[in-house]
Amino acid sequence: MTYPFTRTLTEGNTGQDVYRMQYALNTVGRYYLISSCHCEADGIFGPETKSALMSFQSWDDITVDGIFGNISSDHLVKRYNAGPVAVWGEKPLDQVFQS
Predict the structure, then answer these.
(1) Contact at 8 Å (CB) between 78 and 58?
(2) Full-model pTM
């Protein structure tokens, strides 16, 4: 799989990689029943996305800073691939595109 995230994402960023992060957060949140890990998948890293990311970081016991860097992306991709991809047959993140 091509790694789907190539930059650190912070509040204010936009683009395809933000959409993929939002998509993964929502899917992982649904799979692992993290009710506070939900945000609109619109490609805009706003306060709602930051809150969902911080919920995921707290749940996965990593630094809660609202920054989507190497550690957060590694953990999110690992959780996404282990659950939603393996069990539900979700698309790999590098194949997820904003509609």
Answers:
(1) no
(2) 0.91
Q: Decide if 45 is inside a domain.
A: yes
Cβ-based neighbour number of residue 44 at 10 Å: 17
| Tens-level pLDDT at each residue, the chain (99 residues) | 457 788 999 999 999 999 999 999 999 999 999 999 999 999 999 999 999 999 999 999 999 999 999 999 999 999 999 998 888 888 888 888 865
The verdict on residue 62 lying in a domain is yes
Tokens of 34: 């993290």
In this structure, are residues 85 and 4 in contact, taking their beta carbons and an 8 Å threshold?
no
Q: Show the CA angle centred on residue 11, arms to residues 41 and 63, nearest 5°.
A: 100
Give dist(CA 46, CA 11) in Å, integer: 5
CB 68 within 8 A of CB 8: yes
Domain of 68 in residue numbering reads as 13-88
For position 99, what pLDDT does the model report? 53
Whether residue 26 contacts residue 41, with contact meaning beta carbons closer than 8 Å, is answered with yes
